[in-house]
TrEMBL record, chain A:
Keywords: Cytoplasm, Nucleus, Proteasome. InterPro entries: Ntn_hydrolases_N, Proteasome_bsu_CS, Proteasome_sua/b, Proteasome_suB-type. It comes from Oncorhynchus kisutch (Coho salmon). GO terms for cellular component: cytoplasm; nucleus; proteasome core complex. The lineage of its organism: Eukaryota, Metazoa, Chordata, Craniata, Vertebrata. This is Proteasome subunit beta.
TrEMBL record, chain B:
Transmembrane segments: none annotated. The gene is PSMB5. The active site is at 67 (nucleophile). Gene3D superfamilies: Glutamine Phosphoribosylpyrophosphate, subunit 1, domain 1 (3.60.20.10). Coiled coil: none annotated. It comes from Oncorhynchus kisutch (Coho salmon). Keywords: Cytoplasm, Hydrolase, Nucleus, Protease, Proteasome, Threonine protease, Zymogen. This is Proteasome subunit beta. Belongs to the peptidase T1B family.
Length: 236, 271
């Protein structure tokens, strides 16, 4: 009995000795983690699990992936932890510079546009990070911006990113987007329901994705500020 | 993942770092379906044609862009129609991507290939066009704008940029339509369709354009129908059909129609 995994070309790879393999240094590694953001009428939620893994090991059970940028914006970064840390440092520095030059904080939309150019600046040696920004826009409405590693971005109502994204996104499409459902009332999402949905969604992800689990950190952004909540998840 | 992960296509070789094969026999990193844990995962509307046709490892194969965008000139300007799907391997990363970039109120650019490449360079083009306007006190022509874009990306030729775009606008010589891509092509024409669904779209538009004078309404319907048919048959195109019309006063966003709705509408018309 041998474990079959997918090789680079998408075909199943056999897990046994198949001859000499060239080992090369890779500047990247995959540290797992899932991030999720939901925008409501006057709030935004950014949630992430707190497991930091590498290969078969778990480095930490308490490494959240949400970072507070301003009073109205939170960013979630998953992928390669080294790049996540550096990227958030760079964003913080740029936020400070903007504050000093313009005497005001950056808005969520501005941060998103700036992040896009920061990421594209490394087009030929990308930051291996999947970013999702959640916050309030200038009108006080919830906004979610999702990115790819080289800076392509768009504004969404909800988005899941990271290792379990393919499992979470369809669930969100159904519960928040009411996609492809006939004869269903499109109820607007209120904050309590959204938080409960996020918890349920992560519990499901932790069941089926090895890289997601341990605990869930939820950041709720409202005009009053940012509230954090931690919920335990499966530790296996 | 979000707009993230991607299909790292064989022919887009941006750097060696991004293509590391982990020496570990576990291959655990590659286990995620569709989510290659290789740096350089990025959103693209690209399909990887991994069949190299035995042409040797160094040959860069022209790969298809998983999208359908089209634009054609007609009597009353230019119609631009695009789909809105973005895929990462077989995972549909988004069904609501804006593939038409509004460069300025009278110039549009379409997006096919690497999403970040297209949006970044076209945003830079918008800046250049504005600078031109300030320096020359007149609007930039479509030919000049497309030339600026082509020259900008030509400097990066061979480095792995992936961009296939149509620059559409109206200037003092009338409607303008240019196809520009990251290989260095820049061609003027009356009709272009770009992407994996382009052949299906060409079929519809070619047959509809036979009648010489189309009204704006007919041209819009033709564009919409062409994209719809392409999404029907091409797995990598779908979502919504975004339709723009460029005329002498600038561009107008005509409609955004969900492909499912269009399907029901056309079915009803058939009956």
């Amino acid at each position: 009995m041998f474990a079959q995994v997918y090789g680079d070309n998408g075909k199943m790879k056999e897990y046994h000795y198949s001859g000499p393999v060239e080992h090369r240094f890779s500047p990247y590694s995959f540290n797992g983690g899932t991030v999720l953001a939901v925008a409501g009428e006057d709030f935004a939620i950014v949630a992430s699990d707190t497991r930091l893994s590498e290969g078969y090991s778990i480095h930490s059970r308490d490494s959240p992936k949400c970072y507070k940028l301003t009073n109205t914006t939170v960013i979630g970064c998953s992928g390669f932890h080294g790049d996540c840390l550096t990227l958030t440092k760079i964003i913080d520095a740029r936020l400070k510079m903007y504050k000093h030059s313009n005497n005001k904080s950056m808005t969520s939309g501005a941060i998103a546009a700036m992040l896009s150019t920061i990421l594209y600046g490394r087009r030929f040696f990308p930051y291996y990070v999947y970013n999702i920004i959640g916050g309030l826009d200038e009108e006080g409405k919830g906004a979610v911006y999702s990115f790819d590693p080289v800076g392509s971005y768009q504004r969404d109502t909800y988005k899941a990113g990271g290792s379990a994204s393919a499992m979470l996104q369809p669930l969100l499409d159904n519960q928040i987007g009411f996609k492809n459902m006939e004869g269903v009332q499109h109820l607007p999402l209120n904050q309590e329901k959204a938080v409960q949905l996020v918890k349920d969604v992560f519990i499901s992800a932790a069941e089926r994705d090895v890289y997601t689990g341990d605990a869930l950190r939820i950041c709720i952004v409202t005009k009053e500020g940012i509230k954090e909540e931690t919920v335990p998840l499966r530790k296996d | 993942m979000a707009l993230a992960s991607v299909l790292q296509s064989e022919s887009v070789d941006f750097s060696n770092y991004g293509r590391q094969r982990h020496g570990f026999a576990s291959g655990l990193y590659e286990a995620e379906l569709g989510l290659e844990s290789v740096g350089g995962d990025r959103l693209s509307f690209a399909l990887s044609t991994s069949c190299s046709n035995g042409d040797g490892p160094d040959r860069k194969i022209e790969f298809l862009h998983g999208t359908t965008t089209l634009a054609f000139k007609f009597q009353h300007g230019v119609i631009v129609a695009v789909d809105s799907r973005a895929t990462a391997g077989s995972y549909i990363a988004s069904q609501t991507v804006k593939k038409v970039i509004e460069i300025n109120p009278y110039l549009l650019g379409t997006m096919a290939g690497g999403a970040a490449d297209c949006s970044f360079w076209e945003r830079l083009l918008a800046r250049q066009c504005r600078v031109y306007e300030l320096r020359n006190k007149e609007r930039i022509s479509v030919a000049a704008a497309s030339k600026l874009l082509a020259n900008m990306v030509y400097q990066y030729k061979g480095m792995g940029l992936s961009m296939g775009t149509m620059v559409c606008g109206w200037d003092k010589t009338g409607p303008g339509l240019y196809y520009v891509d990251s290989e260095g092509n820049r061609v003027c024409g009356d009709l272009f369709a770009v992407g994996s669904g382009s052949m299906y779209a060409y079929g519809i538009v070619d047959s509809g354009l036979k009648q010489k004078d189309l009204t704006v309404e007919e041209a819009c319907d033709l564009g919409r129908r062409a994209i719809y048919q392409a999404t029907y048959r091409d797995a990598y195109s779908g979502g919504q059909v975004n339709l723009y019309h460029v005329h002498s006063e600038g561009w107008t966003r005509v409609s955004q129609s969900d492909v499912l709705m269009l399907h029901q509408q056309y079915q009803a018309e058939k009956a």
